[in-house]
Amino acid sequence: xxxxxxxxxxxxxxxxxxxxxxxxxxxxxxxxxxxxxxxxxxxxxxxxxxxxxxxxxxxxxxxxxxxxxxxxxxxxxxxxxxxxxxxxxxxxxxxxxxxxxxxxxxxxxxxxxxxxxxxxxxxxxxxxxxxxxxxxxxxxxxxxxxxxxxxxxxxxxxxxxxxxxxxxxxxxxxxxxxxxxxxxxxxxxxxxxxxxxxxxxxxxxxxxxxxxxxxxxxxxxxxxxxxxxxxxxxxxxxxxxxxxxxxxxxxxxxxxxxxxxxxxxxxxxxxxxxxxxxxxxxxxxxxxxxxxxxxxxxxxxxxxxxxxxxxxxxxxxxxxxxxxxxxxxxxxxxxxxxxxxxxxxxxxxxxxxxxxxxxxxxxxxxxxxxxxxxxxxxxxxxxxxxxxxxxxxxxxxxxxxxxxxxxxxxxxxxxxxxxxxxxxxxxxxxxxxxxxxxxxxxxxxxxxxxxxxxxxxxxxxxxxxxxxxxxxxxxxxxxxxxxxxxxxxxxxx
Length: 493
Prior knowledge:
Number of domains: 1
Strand order of the largest sheet: 1-2-3-4-5-7-10-11
CATH topology: TIM Barrel
Low-confidence stretches: 7-45
Strand content: 5-15%
Radius of gyration: 21 Å
Shape: globular
CATH superfamily: Glycosidases
């Protein structure tokens, strides 16, 4: 009998539940100096984005590439997981996906037609190191060299993600994957190899995509690859090892990359939104943001685990050293944020944690995917909290988008006005943030095209371009026209 499915973005809410017991108020750097009022509602804003704002789209390797057995690529944990009965809603897999591996030139022309100036893609670790470590596959980076060159030839900046969940299966079998610190070290070696060969042209690297999801859904609930259900102490150790892998990779990238290289994480931070924009609720939401992200993002940006996090973990706290924390907090150049929905609405409270998380009523609006609650203000508050709490000067929205019904009308057009509504409202809130000086430098819409949506298979379509998964034909949806106009005017349409 299939397990209860967990959606692609649900991990943020799960992470919030896991951290909810961190109910002690912990005052971090700068919290005492936070402003009590924003004045945001009364500020006059312009209709557009900064002149140098970067518009892009995003994908990930296993979701689009296909060609899983070509040019020396080794198997990943998602290859095995997707071929395990009962794991994928429509019994599909990513063996062919959208065939981006062979159709990348066509896909770059789709980007060019949209007017995007950046593309966030991920590099498949098992293409580069089929065994996860040891000798690299000579053909492993050939595809990415071709992809990068084609992007640059079309005036599109490449933004590379080094890990988007497709761990080489060999490391899972040999080491236990992220349960082992040796995997963290192997990740750094892989990062060093890739950046040493691509950083002459690729200047922006994201280390790990969505640590929280890969930890909770992959290692606690068994709903993602590698499909494990570990103990609370082992789950926290996995999270620590992933954070350590991020830090080691940052150091490896600095040591092996060429001049001008920039690096940071891409995380779906647990989003904490003031239920009503009063000074007290805003302050409570900031405190909640710090505590509910304590196991990863807070540790990266502060170099320590909060007292509340360690107290809640108790005997299940991860084993680590002071050197580990120094590595985890290696200086980064930016923070990437994947923003989809509100995880929590926060109300100030006179209790030891300083906040209460309001429950969601059954009537709360959502998109086609029932888990994807609609809360456009999330796009304002998440980057605002990150910038203010940790004095982050450069932020990218590395993912944002929604699935839709996406059925062609009688005239063949896909009138995805639900997606346009979602994007218009979220981008309006993003413009609110940038107009107030929140340092968001760019936005990567998820996704360029429909793709393999993890445990949902091909049932949930997030693309600006419809993909016929029989022929792999791409067709622009109405939302593609909306995004093209938004980019052309550098303003919400």
